[in-house]
Amino acid sequence: MQRSVLQQELDQNQEELQRAIDDEHWVRDLPQHLKRDDRYILQPSVTQCEHLVFGRLSFKGFNPDVEKLMKIHDHEEELLAACQREKEQSITEREMAKRYSALVGIISKKFTSKKRRSDAVKDEEDAEMTRAPKMFLKPEENS
């Protein structure tokens, strides 16, 4: 019994001592810092750091299974690159129609005879002459 009483007294004394230490301990009232993003990324493998596609490589038939996988992957990448190039270099139907409409006039002028071209130029000049000439309009006087 005495031992348990002594043990309880020791526990109480230690708790009081801990409270006293905690009360005396200085604490700064600063806002908690936000957790900054780490500047470093931990990767479990070297393949991502070195931008390797496969963890293993094989050359000259050393590991045929890996070489098959490499060929399949390379073929898929080439197809994706070709599709991307085609999208970048292709033109839309509207652009094609605009270009075609501009070319029709140019080519039609090329194949007309010189006489018809000169007649067309004269007709345009006559049309400009038949329009009413622009005259100076006197401003109204406000008096």
UniProtKB/TrEMBL annotation:
GO BP annotation list: maturation of 5.8S rRNA
Annotated stretches, region: Disordered: 113-143
Residue ranges that the Swiss-Prot or TrEMBL entry lists as coiled coil: none
Name of this protein: M-phase phosphoprotein 6
Source organism (scientific name): Pomacea canaliculata
